[in-house]
Amino acid sequence: MFGFPGETEDDFQQTLDFIKRNRGSLDRVYASATFTSLEENSTLTARQEEFGIRREREREAHHLYWESEDGTNNYLVRLERYERFRKLAVGLGLDAYKGINGNLETDKLSNLAQYYRYKGNYAEAVRHLRAYLERDPKSEPMREELRLCLAELETLEACA
């Protein structure tokens, strides 16, 4: 597991080093694509301040998009570490189990679009949705997301 509150780059590197050292004893590794999430009724969720998680005041916190108080652990950092973890595992010939079948690149684009929409950065959300639709042009749910983000972006530009 990686992405836990308080994890440093050095901690994450130790995880990668462990995989390298123990490659001969491993045939599969699994990194959850949801990383460390704030699950309902969990100790982590109930005691966020103790774990150094920044509380979101203006809206209900998203279970995936939490950030550390010092800003060093956020969704984008966890996503980048996930990619490095998988790249290492695949490079070592390990089954980097992904779970439900899907395309990693389109999953990443979808996740980033959702993240940026949540953060109110509709231009970035639109950029990722368009990249997604270049790969999967028939995805009606992503087309609908794009329509919604473009409408939000238009509203913001009209108010500016």
Strand arrangement in the largest pleated sheet: 1-2
Shape: globular
Overall pLDDT confidence? 88
The tally of structural domains comes to 2
The radius of gyration computed from the alpha-carbon positions, rounded to a whole number of angstroms, is 18 Å
* pLDDT < 50 stretches: none
Count of helical stretches: 6
State the order of secondary-structure elements, H for helix, E for strand: HEHHEHHH
Q: How many DSSP-defined strands?
A: 2
Strand content: under 5%
Helix-and-strand structural type: mainly alpha
What's the helical proportion of residues?
40-55%
Major pleated sheet: 2 strands, parallel
Q: How many angstroms separate the termini?
A: 43 Å
